[in-house]
Each structure stands twice: as structure tokens, then as C-alpha cells.
Task: structure prediction
Amino acid sequence: MHVIKNIDNLRLWRDGLKEKGETLSFVPTMGALHDGHLSLVKEGLKQCDNVIVSIFVNPTQFAPHEDFDSYPRTIEDDIKKLQNIGVQAVWLPNIDDIYPNGAQSDIHIDGVSEPLEGEFRPHFFDGVATVVARLLRLVNPTVALFGEKDFQQLQVIKKMVHQENIDVEIIGAPIMRDENGLALSSRNIYLSAEEYKTAIQLNKILGEVANDQLDESSATQKLLNVGFDKVDYCTVRNSETFELEPPNRVLAAVWLGETRLIDNMAIR
Ligand code: AMP
Result:
């Protein structure tokens, strides 16, 4: 596996694939890799001849009060995991390669980026759209894979590549969960044993909304009753526009102490 640390080497490696006529899947991540990330990589291996994974904790998607400094960084373990599943390359971008003129967002996506996550983390999607556009332009992959765990992010990215004229196919992949149904997340390591017991209720309560056993406001009340400290939203929306109609996906963001969890589910 190539461990690429600068863009000249990235370009050389990428040009080599083009000369051989080989296709490339790209999985952008912030590291602290778990089976959710690895499921995207495995799908990428099926889609194309090669897979490249980037590991970059993107400063522009964190607000000053958020966990950029303490975000888990486990680079040696991450590299081993990627090697074990047969990835061709991992790219560890340098901050100046991505932000040569300073770490600032310069892309905004209207509509889909505004409700829900956009309301509670107003800086977030501009940062995500900016970094993903820059990563995609540097890697120039055939396809790029993103998890449905971050469902609104997936739709923002689809709209961004259209708006920015980036020639890539965006593929969404299903949410990977642990044995108790908790959606895997790099931030789950912040949860205490007690908090974990509450966290696993999130998926169950979303399931009750998806099955029409609970409406939005009873689900919000139930989330608080089972021990979540705060509910940013728990709402049924349209999965492409995030407007109220026609509703086909339940999405939630909740807090346990300092940890914010998100999850979502299709409505059958
Ligand atoms: P992150 O490192 O959190 O930025 O995530 C990198 C990619 O992995 C994003 O496309 C996420 O949506 C995806 N991802 C994170 N957690 C999961 C999960 N539990 N299941 C599937 N994909 C995931």
C-alpha cells in the first residue's frame, strides 16, 4: 500500500493509473477508522480497480467550540486496517495542500444544506463542501463513496459536485451499526458505559418512528425520557430536499453529555 504524504506523489501515482487505463474509487475520511469506513472501502474495491482513502481532520467543518483538537487521531492503526483489506493507497494530506491560502470555506450549497444539521452547525456544510471539492479535484477519482450515516451530507455532496462541475460518480453506502444497533462513529469512543446504554436507544426509537408507532413529538419526548440530554431534532423529512413533504426518512441529532450523535432511517 502506498502511503502518500504530498500532492506531487499523489499526482504521480494518479497519472500512473491513468496510463494503465485503471479506474479509481475514493473514500475521504477523518480517520479513527471503524467498520463503517471499511464498508465504504470494500464497496470501493468492488466498484473500481483501485481504492485510495484520505485521512484528514478538516478544520473548516468544526466551529471554534467543537472538538477539532480532541478529535480522535489513530493514524498508525488506521494504516494497518487499510493495509489488511487491500487498499492500494492512503493519502495523508497536509493542511497547506488543501488550504494554500488559509483554512477557509468558499463553497455554499443552497437548499439541502440549510435545515437540520445546517441549522444546528451553520459552519459545517460549507466546510464539508469545500474540503470534499478540493479533495476530489486533487484525486480525480472515477467514483467517490460516502456513508448514509451522514445522510444530509451525502445529498449536499451530490449537489456540490453538480454545482462545481466535478466529473465523478457519488455513491452512497448503508449505515454500519454495532451489535446493539448503534451507528458506528469515530466519536462513539467518547461515550461512557452508562451513556452507551442510552445511546443504543436512538436506533430503536427511530425504528418506532419509521414503523409509524411514534410521531415526531412523542419520539422527541421518549428520547429525553430514556436519558438523552438534548434533542437538536428528531424529524421526518424528504430524503432529497429535507423539506417536510413528501416524508420518507426520519433523521435525528441528540446529545449525551458533550457527545453529539446523529442517525437516520428510511420509512417503510
Ligand atoms: P468521517 O471520518 O466521520 O468523516 O466519515 C468518513 C465517511 O465514512 C463518511 O462518508 C461517513 O458518512 C462514513 N461513515 C461514518 N460512519 C459510518 C457508518 N457507521 N456506516 C457507514 N458509513 C459511515
Summary: The chain has two domains: 2-173, 186-261. The first strand starts at residue 2 and ends at 4. Residues 2-173 form a domain with the Rossmann fold fold (CATH 3.40.50.620). Residues 9 and 238 are 42 Å apart (CA to CA).
